[in-house]
Design brief:
The chain has 142 residues and is an alpha/beta fold. It has one domain (15-139): Glutaredoxin, CATH 3.40.30. It is 24% helix and 30% strand. The chain contains four helices and seven strands; from the N terminus they run H-E-H-E-H-E-E-H-E-E-E. It has helices at 7-12, 27-38, 51-56, 82-91; strands spanning 16-22, 41-46, 67-71, 74-78, 95-100, 122-128, 133-139. A seven-stranded mixed β-sheet has the order 2-1-3-4-5-6-7. The longest helix is centred in the N-terminal third of the chain and has 12 residues, at 27-38. It is globular, with a radius of gyration of 16 Å.
């Protein structure tokens, strides 16, 4: 049995660094950060809004949401599931990043007790360098 101090154990526990910009009182943003942390991300949070970050990371306003993140050279806009972020980092497409525009009920961070069991269908969009988008993942209401 391996001891926890072995180099292998350290690599297995490595977390992916991410920065998030959000408003200071946004509860759904906080819940999304918790979702990301539970899924292996180490998140540094900036509570001074996300407008400047969205612009700096070249996310068109049409894809806007309540928080913006940066991870592995990509922008993540809104309530994108951790599994999609992992897939993005594995596949490494030539893109700005991923977005779930708006605040869709049932997406991570918008899925707490206050929303009951409601799950609206939504798409995770891949934002290309040209500002166009394509569907990266699709989530149904089932």
């Amino acid at each position: 049995m391996l001891a926890l101090s072995t180099p292998f154990a350290s690599r297995a526990q490595a977390r992916t660094a991410m920065e998030v910009w959000k408003g200071p009182k946004c509860g759904c943003c906080k819940d999304w950060v918790t979702h990301m942390e539970k899924n292996g991300f180490s998140v540094r949070v900036h509570d001074d809004g996300n407008t400047d970050a969205r612009e700096r990371l070249k996310v068109p306003i049409a894809f806007g949401s309540c928080h913006t993140a940066s991870v592995g050279g990509y922008a993540i806009e809104g309530h994108v599931p951790a599994a999609d972020v992992r897939r993005l980092l594995k596949e490494r497409p030539d893109a700005v990043g991923l977005a779930v525009p708006g605040m869709l009920i049932g997406s991570p961070g918008m899925d707490g007790p206050a929303y009951g069991k409601r799950k609206d269908p939504y798409d995770v969009l891949l934002i290309g360098a040209d500002g166009r988008s394509s569907v990266f993942s699709r989530y149904s209401s089932k």
